[in-house]
Structure formats: C-alpha cells, structure tokens
Design goal:
The complex is a heterodimer. By secondary structure, chain A is mainly alpha-helical. Chain A is built from 28 helices and two strands. Chain B is mostly helical. Classes of the chains: A mainly alpha, B mainly alpha.
Chain lengths: 689, 65
C-alpha cells in the first residue's frame, strides 16, 4: 500500500474516532446507540496501538528481534517453549481476562455511562496496556523473572517485600469480593444455585476423562464438559419448577458463603487435575465463546443506551457504592482500564513462551486492549437496561428499603421511574423470584446480557439466557477463587518455609491443610462480613479490592520507571511515570476518603462510630444489634488495611525515588539485571509455525 | 478454504494443549537424534507426559481477576 493511502486511512480512523468519542461525550438527553461505543473503542485502540505502542516499542523499549528470548535459550519443550505469537496471545488473554472487567463497569455505571467509558478507553491505552507491555518486556529481558524478583533485584529488598505482601493481600480481598458476587447471584435462586453447583461435578468428570479415560485428549474432554454445562443450565429450570428439589437449592446468602468456603478449601487441597485444571478449560471456552457472542449480538442488535451520560450520583450519594466521581470511578473500574494483577502474568508466565521480542507489542499491549474492550461491552450491557431497573437490581435493601413498594418509590424519586409490576414481570421472564437488591453486579449484567442475547437470538429464551450468563460469570469467578486460594497457599507455604523448612514443602499434608485453611479463613472472613452486611457488602469490599489492585499496578509501574531511569532513559520515564503518578493520586485520595470521610457510606471510621452510637442509644432492631459489634470490628479492620495499603505504596514510591536520585547523582545503585544479548538462532519456519 | 479450516483447527489444538504430546515428541526427536548412544531414556508415554505437563502448568499464578 502506498504511503498516501495509508495516511489517509489513519486520518479517517482518527476522524471517526474523534466523532464517536465526541458524540458519546456530548450527547445529552437523547438515547445513544451502542455502536458509537464500539466505534469509539475500535478507533481509539487502533490509533493507540499503531502509534503510541509502536513508538514505545521502537523508541522507548527498543525491542530487538535478533535477541534470543528466554523461551529460546531455556527451551525445555514444556514451560519454556518458543510459541507462535497468536498462541501466546490466546494464552495471555485467557490468563488476564477474568470477571473483573465485567463487574467493575457494571458498578461504575451508577455515575452514568460517560465517566466509566472514558476511563476504560483512556486508562487502558495510556496506563493498563503500557504497564502490561513494559512489564512483559522487562521480564523477557530478565530470564522471565517474576515482578517480585525484579522489584527485589532492581530496587531493593523493600520493593520485593512490598510486591509479595501486595500480591498476597490483593488475592485475599479479590477472592472475598468475587465470592460475594457469586453468593449474591445464587441467593434464593434454586436455578442459579443448581447450575453453578453442577459445574463442580462436570469439571471433575472432565478431569478424570482427561487424566485416566483418554489421557491428554483435551479437546474431546472439553467438548463433553461444555455440553454438560449447557445441559445443566437447562436442567436448572426443571429443578426450579420441581417442588421438593428446589428446596435443596434454595438457600440464604450465609449458607451459600459457607459452602463456597468449603469448596475453596477442597479446591486448594485436591490435586489440580481433578478440579482446577478442567474447570479452567471449561471457563476459558465459556469466556471466549460468550464474549464473542456478546460482541456479535451488540453489533447485530445495535441496542440503545438508556442510562444518561452522567447521573446526579457523581456527588457521592450513589446507591451502589458511596463516594464521588473522583476518585471512585477510577477505583471501581480497575481491570479493564489498569490492573496490577496483570503484571503478575506478564512477568514470569508469558515471557516463557515468547519466541521473539517483537511479539511483545501485540501480546502486552494488544491483549490489554482486548480486555478493555470486554469492559466496554460490560458497560453497554449495564447501560442498555432502564436506569430504574438497573438501580432496582443493584441497590441494596439497606439503601432503598426491603419492601418492593418502598424501593420503587425511592428509585423513582431519583428520577429513574420503575414500577413493582415492571420488576415482577422482568423477574418472571428471567425465571427468578425477585430481582430487587441483587447486588454485586452479576445479576444486572446477566439481565443486560440476556436482554441483548434475547433480542438478537430469540426472546422466548430469556430465562435460559439469564442463567447461562450467571453460569458464565460464576464459572470463571470460581476458577479465580480456587486458583487464587491455591496460589495464596503456595505463597504462605513459601513464607512459612523461611521459619520452618518443613512447612515449605508443598506436598506435606499438614502444611497443605494448615496453609489452605489459613488462606480460606482469610478471605472467608471478609466474605462472611460482606454477606451479613445490611448494605450488601459490595459497597465496602469492592473499593478495597480496587485500591489493592491499583496499588499493585503502582508497584509494577514503580519497578518499570526505576528501571527506565537506571537504563539512562530519563527522558522517556514519563511513559510509565505519568500513569504511576495518576494511580498514586487516585489511590491516595480514595484511601484518604475511605479513612477520614464523615459520610457514613464512605468513611470506615465514621460508619463504625455511627454504629457504636446507635447501639448505645438502643435504636437498632435486635437482628441488626446482634451483628453490629462484628460490623464495627470489620470497619476498623478495613480502615487499617486501607491505611496499610497506601502506606506500602508510598514506601515503595520513596524507595524508587531514592534509587533514581542516587542513580542520577552518580551514586552507586543496584546494577541492572538485564541478561546479556545472545543472538537468536531460531529459524522462522519451525519456531513460528 | 480447507487450508484455512486446517490452520484454525491447528491453532485451537495448540491453544488448548490438545497437541502438547505431539509437540513434546517433536521436541524430543529434535534434541535426541544426535545423542542416541549417550543418554537416552525413551520418550514418556502419552499418559505420563500429560500428567507431568498438567501438574507443571498449574504451578504459579495462572489466572487473574
């Protein structure tokens, strides 16, 4: 293609992108078509990838395709294997895309569609993608070392310890909040509970098939598993309509929470082949399949967005979570814009497969763009609902009242009309008893997806689509839950092994049982508190998760900025330094508000004090009074945890600044640990086939 | 067209790990053909290989939020 044509095409993309972003941003009062979102996303991503990512690759990182990657140098035919870039892309995307980008945008839609959408688009291209790409590059140049190792070797012991503690704590909070999302989706819903429980024996069956019946026949086993999962979605209806069977699956939130904890413990102790690995296969197929289906449905259907661009809740009075637009939209949408967790995959895991450095751009930057696109679709699915319905599903009883009449009156009074009949009709269509106060994001996303799928592929299957969407979310939430518990167990064993070497043996049963138990009680505690919290728990746990995740991202960006400066690239340090500064601003502001705010829906301490006063004056109903002391203790714990996160963050920032200023003033710093240049000898044909 | 379907199928098999054992045999051949006399244990059987491959694959952080 000649040069003029190319530039014309890019100018066209820029114009379309600008007008799409413009019409999303400036549209007021009228319905806007979801296609604008898709167009804006695709244009912004293409431009960012073509220009910004390419510039980072060629001018900042200076990718070198003649250099042998760790996969080539340590090729052992197993974990280190040079692999074709699209295969690595698939693995990397499957690893980074979890339930986070689906839940975050759904919750943040309470501010209207605009703030979340802009943050997803620009946070990703300037922050998240850069973090993933730079981390992938740094780890590739350092024999596929993990983020923690790089932090220790490049910044010092403090950085390494901070990364380790950060990873462990984010894991605990993440699992608790995801557990809460699943519990809220299954509460008093026999259909959803049956379908979600059925995924466990189905996964075990697939595991046994792959291991013993037909060893290594991965696709065959997975196909059987996927069919069984779909059957279990349909089977749930039978259970739901059966008078005695439905009672078996009709439970309170607390009962379900205990079951989830028992499941998490079992999954961490059982061998991986039996539950974890096959479940992961199934969830990966479900994830990729459903996301593709959703994209196709949105493009076919071109639904209208019914949520206004901006709601009055930007002032901090939102029913889903308390807190002003700044900084809470940036905390609520972590994955999808920037997610520290990705740095753990980009370092250590993916570099072992990379056959050539030049693939870093498409894998590091490109995968995150795709993840961001998933977040945009979640935003569309949340905002195609009537705002009244959206708020009725997502507002907890503590905010709008337990009676349907009170709830609709309150929500309608905000200017988002909704009626009891409308909600009953919707619940009936979805095959649920009620959709009021189904907090956590999963049910409203499922309703959104079901209505999109229903309109695109057949209205009469709404209930099936709804439970399919619930199953789809639950299956990979549970995968994250058991994989996370297991990783937490390994980390704890590793730490305890420093004091008592026997504890560090990953297969010593007493150690396995003890550490798994500790990890499960860690997240189980937060899950328990979330479930008994009259405000739904998400209000407390999700911001905590966001802060923890952004803190981990800040650690990764600190390592990256430190290394850039130590490599003499001070003038490019803003590439990671700017997103870092932004993360520090938002996490610190959010943490400050969570700790000091006098609004009881935001500040942990003020909420605790408020409860203490209410107990003292005896105005709490007995049911609430009995759990109040636990809630107060938990609020204090959350406050201290937030303080701890933000303290850790500042500690590592100062450590990074210390290293950089020593380097810049010519004093001794830890040497760069980049491995030497060894020319690649890979012959294109076999390595990249 | 058939070529494209074949490529896609190969991609799916590679991504899912369905062909991991074939890849392992290829790797084995490549690295052992010159040294037949020196070491060589026989390559692992498919079931044995799959066990090791699966257990190794799950060692470490593999999934995200």
């Amino acid at each position: 293609m000649n040069k003029t044509l190319k530039s014309t095409i890019w100018i066209l993309i820029a114009i379309i992108g600008a007008s799409a972003v413009g019409s999303i941003a400036l549209n007021r009062g009228e319905n806007i078509n979801a296609l604008w979102f898709i167009a804006a996303a695709i244009c912004v991503y293409s431009l960012a990838y073509r220009f910004y990512a390419t510039w980072i690759a060629t001018s900042v990182l200076i990718l070198d395709d003649t250099r042998a990657t760790p996969a080539e140098r340590f090729d052992n035919g197993r974990d280190f294997t040079p692999t074709h870039k699209w295969i690595v892309f698939g693995h990397h995307f499957a690893a980074i895309a979890g339930p986070g980008p689906l839940v975050g945008p759904t919750l943040a839609a309470q501010f209207g569609y605009l703030p979340g959408t802009l943050w997803i688009l620009f946070g990703a291209v300037l922050g998240g993608c850069v973090q993933d790409m730079v981390t992938l590059f740094l780890s590739t140049r350092r024999n596929a070392k993990s983020l923690g190792q790089m932090a220790r070797e490049e910044l010092g012991a403090l950085g390494g310890t901070a990364a380790l503690i950060g990873t462990f704590s984010i894991m605990i909070i993440l699992i608790a909040v995801l557990g809460l999302v699943v519990v809220n989706a299954m509460k008093h819903s026999p259909w959803a509970t049956f379908t979600v429980s059925a995924t466990i024996p189905v996964a075990m069956l697939v595991g046994i098939y792959m291991r013993y019946i037909r060893p290594g026949q991965v696709l065959e086993a997975s196909a059987i598993g996927v069919i069984l999962l779909l059957v279990s979605v349909g089977g749930g209806r039978f259970i739901d309509e059966h008078e005695t069977l439905r009672l078996l699956f009709d439970h309170e939130g607390l009962t379900l929470a205990w079951w989830i904890m028992a499941y998490g413990f079992a999954a961490a102790v059982l061998p991986v082949w039996l539950l974890l690995a096959p479940r992961d296969y199934l969830s990966t197929y479900m994830k990729l399949g459903t996301i593709t289906l959703l994209a196709v449905a949105i493009i076919m259907l071109q639904p209208h967005i019914k949520m206004p661009a901006i709601t009055p809740f930007t002032d901090g009075s939102g029913p889903i979570f308390g807190g002003k637009l700044f900084p809470f939209v940036f905390i609520t949408i972590a994955c999808g814009a920037i997610s520290g967790f990705h740095a753990l995959i980009s370092s250590g895991t993916t570099p072992k497969l990379l056959s050539n450095e030049r693939d870093i751009q498409i894998i590091g930057y490109g995968c995150m763009l795709l993840e961001s696109f998933v977040a945009i679709m979640a935003m569309i699915a949340a905002t195609v609902l009537d705002p009244g319905v959206f708020f009725a599903i997502n507002s907890s009883a503590g905010v709008v009242g337990t009676e349907a009449v009170d709830a609709v009156a309150k929500i309608s009074s905000w200017g988002y009309p909704v009626t009891v009949e409308q909600m009953q009709h919707l619940a009936h269509e979805m095959g649920e008893a009620t959709l009021f106060a189904r907090t956590g994001g999963a049910p409203s996303l499922a309703v959104g997806m079901a209505s999109i799928f229903g309109s695109a592929f057949g209205e009469n299957l709404l209930a099936l689509w709804y439970h399919f969407a619930i199953m789809f979310e639950a299956i990979f939430i549970l995968t994250t839950l058991d994989a996370g518990t297991r990783v937490g167990r390994f980390m704890l064993q590793d730490i305890l092994g420093n004091f008592w070497p026997k504890m560090g043996e990953t297969s010593w049963t007493p150690s396995v049982v003890l550490t798994s138990g500790l990890v499960v009680s860690g997240w189980g505690y937060f899950l328990y508190i979330g479930v008994i919290d009259p405000n739904g728990g998400v209000n407390i746990l999700w911001p905590l998760f966001g802060i923890a995740n952004q803190m981990l991202a800040a650690i990764a960006l600190c390592v990256a900025t430190g290394i850039l400066i130590k490599s003499g690239k001070l003038k490019f340090a803003w590439v990671t330094g700017l997103p870092l500064a932004w993360l520090v601003i938002i996490t610190t502001t959010a943490a400050w508000e969570k700790i000091t705010s006098s609004d009881i829906r935001i500040g942990f301490f003020s909420a605790a004090n408020d409860l203490t006063e209410k107990i003292a004056s005896g105005i709490l109903p007995p049911a609430k009074a009995s759990i109040a002391p636990q809630l107060i203790f938990n609020l204090h714990l959350d406050a201290w945890l937030t303080l701890f996160f933000v303290g850790l963050l500042w500690l590592i920032i100062f450590d990074m600044l210390r290293v950089c200023s020593r380097y810049l003033s010519g004093k001794a710093v830890l040497p760069l640990t980049e491995s030497a240049h060894i020319p690649s000898r890979l012959v294109e044909e076999w390595a990249r086939d | 067209m058939i070529n494209k379907i074949n490529t896609l199928w190969r991609l799916i098999r590679r991504l899912s790990g369905d062909d991991a054992y074939e890849q392992y045999l290829k790797y084995y051949d490549r690295h052992h053909q010159n040294k037949v006399k020196i070491l060589c244990q026989k390559p692992l059987s498919k079931a044995e290989f799959f066990k090791q491959w699966q257990d190794e694959k799950w060692n470490g952080i593999k999934r995200c939020c």
